[in-house]
Write a structure and sequence with these properties.
It is a single chain. The protein contains two helices and three strands, in the order αββαβ. By secondary structure, the protein is of the alpha+beta class. The protein starts with a helix and ends in a 5-residue tail after the last strand.
Length: 71
């Protein structure tokens, strides 16, 4: 049954908003995608720079998924 296999593949996740006020400074994080270059895929936090804004706030962790950005 296709529905059964889809249910097994679903991952549980929590969505929350993070507002980093960079004030012109780098956020201190690196983004990566596992998708092929010709197919857009989800973006993940692949690294957080020690001492950077993301590291100091502890609001973003490696392997978090970026869902949407607002500039």
């Amino acid at each position: 049954n296709n529905n059964l296999s889809l249910n097994k593949e679903r991952k549980k996740f929590v969505t929350f908003t993070v507002d980093l006020q960079s004030e012109g400074q780098p956020l201190g994080l690196t983004l990566a995608s596992e998708a092929a270059a010709d197919v857009p895929g989800p973006l993940y936090i692949s690294a957080v720079s020690s001492g950077g804004l993301a590291d100091r706030t502890k609001a973003i962790q490696v392997n978090d998924q970026l869902v949407i950005t607002v500039l």
